[in-house]
Amino acid sequence: MTYYKVLVDGKSCHGGDMEWSLPARDESGNWTPGKWHTVKGDLEICDRGLHVTTNITKWLKPGCSAYRCAVKGIGSRRDDKFVVRSVRLLEKTELPAWWLQVEQFLHSITKIKWFSNGRQNKGWKVFDTRDAAWDAASGAARDAASDAARDAASGAARDAASGAAWDAARNAAWRAAWDAARDAASGAARDAASGAAWDAAGDAAGDAARDAARRAAWDAAWDAARNAALYAEAVVSEWKFDKKHVAHIKARWNVWQRGYGLLCDVDGVLYVYRKP
Predict the structure, then answer these.
(1) Has this prediction a pTM greater than 0.85?
(2) Dihedral angle at the C-alpha atoms of 46, 51, 54, 59, nearest 10 degrees?
(3) Quick one: how far is CA 269 from the chain centroid?
(4) Do both 174 and 214 map to the same domain?
(5) pLDDT in tens, 70-122
(6) Of the candidates 67, 95, 123, which is a domain's last residue?
(7) Which residues contact 51 (CB under 8 A, 6 or more apart)?
(8) How many CA atoms within 13 Å lie on the side-chain side of 98?
(9) Residue 45: helix, strand or coil by DSSP?
(10) Whether residues 57 and 124 fall in one domain
(11) Domain range for 253
């Protein structure tokens, strides 16, 4: 059985931040293993001991590296995860090709000009706020709208990615969109509230404006996160499903790339909002 360890910057990244002794590669391409790491006492999975896996796809994180390991003193296991007494990193191993594409997508997220309100698509239904878009889309149609495309991607990708791509893209998009949406929403709230109301710590109007701004930013960030995660799952599956779903997923993400927010689609029509 082959065991692996996934690290970020040479440190543990799934609980704890232990710095590992890494293998080195010489000019001939040969690997010199790192030093042995050992723990004493009772071993308990997810609590005490060193942990390795037989399936790295479940444990990938942005910026990670994976290493083939030698292990001693194997304790218990949980699915592909093992707790052991001693681990030595032998050599770096290649990451899956689909994960490298996911990381390229994650990098592209940082380049988006969030909520910049760029060029619109003529097929969109555009509203000034997320609430207005919400009201315009009927409840039944809205709730059913995003399921088809997501199910198509998930069915093809989820087993291969084990959720790693979904989580990475969701988190990256949430952070980026949250920062931009919070700034945009706070600016709108400041305009709506009087200067005195905004500055006065105990003023109800200022407090209400701040709360509304935060809620709007939070909702917008999660809208972006869900669509980024859907796109990442499609990348993992190498877009191997119905062309109409491929086009739809790309169209959804294009809304964010152009600086708008996407609430949902109704019968294929995208309900889009400007700065939250």
Answers:
(1) no
(2) 70
(3) 25
(4) yes
(5) 999 999 999 999 999 999 999 999 999 999 999 999 999 999 999 999 999 99
(6) 95
(7) 14, 15, 45, 81, 82, 83, 84
(8) 25
(9) coil
(10) no
(11) 98-273
